[in-house]
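Thread amino acids onto this structure.
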């Protein structure tokens, strides 16, 4: 996969190409490798409790809802919960179902004093296939990375 420096350089290059307002964008495989190679790095799963319970979770991830369930309203305590659980000096990677909420979370965290924010592209479930279902094209789970179901 490459050294930590190589992976982060690639992620930063992607961020510049995509004009992202945070440090970088990682594939699920790259994010898993960063977790192995960078002590103190954190994966923050921003999916709802229902998604975590019904679809699956990444062992060891910090779990903070971006939107609440039920209701799908923005979590007004997201940044406070992040501050309680993740040091601002940590390299922080955000993941959700497909990469959209985690993108928003990375923007919010970056704007609140977390300089090393990365989004996990494809998310946990990946993109929809031709029949409109997730889980077969990309994503953490499809890549065979560690996950569990309650």
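Threaded sequence (150 positions):
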């Amino acid at each position: 996969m490459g050294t930590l420096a190589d992976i982060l350089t690639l992620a930063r290059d992607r961020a510049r190409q995509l004009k992202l307002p945070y440090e970088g964008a990682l594939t699920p495989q790259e994010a898993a490798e960063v977790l192995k190679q960078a002590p103190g790095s954190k994966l923050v799963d921003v999916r709802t409790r229902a998604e975590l319970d019904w679809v699956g979770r990444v062992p060891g991830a910090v779990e903070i809802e971006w939107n609440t369930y039920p209701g799908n309203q923005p979590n007004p305590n997201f940044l406070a919960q992040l501050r309680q659980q993740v040091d601002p000096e940590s390299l922080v990677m955000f993941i959700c179902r497909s990469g959209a909420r985690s993108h928003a979370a990375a923007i919010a965290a970056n704007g609140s004093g977390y300089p090393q924010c990365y989004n996990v592209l494809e998310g946990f479930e990946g993109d929809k296939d031709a029949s409109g279902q997730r889980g077969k094209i990309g994503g953490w789970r499809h890549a065979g990375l560690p996950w569990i179901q309650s």
